[in-house]
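Support request from a user on the community tier.

User writes: "When I paste my structure tokens into the form, the page sometimes reloads and wipes my input. The last time it worked, I copied everything first. Here is what I submitted, just in case something in the input itself triggers the reload:"
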């Protein structure tokens, strides 16, 4: 997507990211509900950063799912289970975030588990050059156990009546927010929004409801 307003916003955000100290790895989070447009936004921001000559590491929380036996241990319809059990934060910290933090080894992996095959993956270990920028997307990124890792974070604001239909365009689920099959995901994310207050802790909140004309919301 190359709408002028969107591109200008991405360039402004990239300039803000580049102003963060380059002595260590700069860790950038793109947060938001399912269907908010996190992956596309992160890919576009990464491209803008790379165009400046920055070295970018792209990764997603989707490479750090728990196994199905853990994800659904509270039941397949459980919102609490979606919020609490979807991801293996211990592995995320050990494989990616801690190595890329100050004092870390800079030897990292971008994925440890494939939820589609419900099996571990052997992503190669890589080495991050000083001053590299991690652009990391996913849901629930402003949980208390993750907040301290981000040098710069973005919360994409999109209401459920828009985000849920967007998600179905990937060929999954119902576009009806109130459909029983969506309860686990909508209510689980409402727990996150209520308990973790991502808008409060994000560096900026971007309204991404109109993909052509996103804008930074006033704090």
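"...and here is what came back when it finally went through:"
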């Amino acid at each position: 997507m190359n709408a002028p307003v969107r591109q200008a916003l991405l360039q402004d955000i990239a300039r803000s990211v580049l102003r963060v100290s380059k002595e260590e790895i700069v860790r950038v989070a793109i947060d938001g509900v399912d269907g908010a447009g996190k992956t596309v936004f992160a890919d576009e921001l990464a491209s803008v950063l790379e165009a400046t000559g920055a070295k970018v590491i792209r990764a997603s929380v989707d490479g750090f799912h728990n196994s199905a036996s853990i994800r659904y241990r509270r039941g397949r319809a459980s919102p609490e289970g979606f919020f609490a059990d979807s991801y293996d934060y211990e592995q995320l910290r050990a494989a990616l975030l801690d190595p890329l933090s100050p004092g870390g080894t800079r030897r990292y992996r971008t994925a440890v588990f494939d939820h589609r095959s419900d099996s571990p993956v052997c992503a190669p270990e890589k080495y991050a050059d000083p001053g590299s920028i991690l652009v990391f997307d996913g849901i629930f990124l402003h949980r208390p156990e993750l907040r301290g890792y981000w040098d710069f974070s973005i919360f994409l604001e999109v209401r459920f009546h828009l985000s849920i239909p967007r998600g179905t365009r990937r060929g999954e689920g119902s576009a009806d927010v109130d459909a029983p099959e969506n309860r686990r995901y909508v209510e689980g994310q409402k727990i996150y929004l209520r308990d973790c207050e991502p808008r409060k802790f994000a560096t900026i909140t971007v309204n991404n409801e109109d993909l052509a004309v996103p804008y930074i919301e006033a704090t």
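Agent notes: The reload is a front-end session timeout and is unrelated to the input. The mean pLDDT is 95. The longest helix spans residues 180-196. Escalated to web team.
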